[in-house]
Specification:
There is one protein chain. The protein is of the alpha+beta class. The chain has one domain. The protein has four helices and seven strands; from the N terminus they run ααββαββαβββ. A four-stranded antiparallel β-sheet has the order 1-4-7-6, with no helix packed on it. The radius of gyration is 17 Å and the shape is elongated. The N and C termini lie far apart (40 Å). The model has no long low-confidence stretch (mean pLDDT 91).
């Protein structure tokens, strides 16, 4: 199932990632939205939208150059990936950027950018610290080991620094 699909939605999964409710009784407005009395759509209000790679900032160092991919992913095994359309045993959803000029002493801040997310996606899913493990950083095809720190308020944003 592709990312951002409303196929086989489960209110219990949304309750878990949007409100921290782990029981079988989840109220869409009160538990997921955080308030009742406002019409709430199980999918339209919480969807992730289309995702892309965004380099927020970069301070390039002086170490020898290497190349490789910087990757941000929403694992299908996590609650966010599962709600956004994954199936059991599915693949991770990811965005990546190839760099031909990576340096071990670079300081880079990268994030997943969302196009057309639901109005509650950021506040109720992406920015909840309990969903931090649902957003991951990795590299491919480079020998550089970055030390990444996840933003404390925006879980899909990472700052990369040289691993001392």
């Amino acid at each position: 199932m592709p990312l951002n699909s409303a196929y086989r939605l489960r209110l219990s999964q949304l309750g878990h990632i949007a409100g921290g409710i782990n029981s079988g009784r989840v109220a869409l407005g009160a538990d997921c939205r955080g308030s009742s009395g406002t019409r709430t759509s199980m999918w339209a209000d919480f969807r992730i939208g289309s995702i892309s790679f965004n380099q927020v900032s970069r301070l390039q160092g002086n170490d020898p150059i290497d190349d490789g991919f910087l990757i941000l992913s929403v694992p299908s095994s996590g609650g966010v990936g599962a709600y956004m359309g994954s199936s059991t045993g599915g693949t991770d959803y990811y965005v990546s950027q190839f760099y031909s000029d990576l340096r071990a002493d670079d300081d880079i801040t990268i994030e997943i950018s969302e196009t057309n997310p639901g109005p509650l996606y950021h506040s109720r899913i992406q920015n909840r610290s309990t969903n931090s493990n649902d957003y991951r950083f990795s590299t491919e095809s480079t020998a550089i080991n970055f030390s990444e720190s996840q933003d404390s308020t925006k879980m899909d944003k990472f700052t990369l620094q040289e691993l001392e």
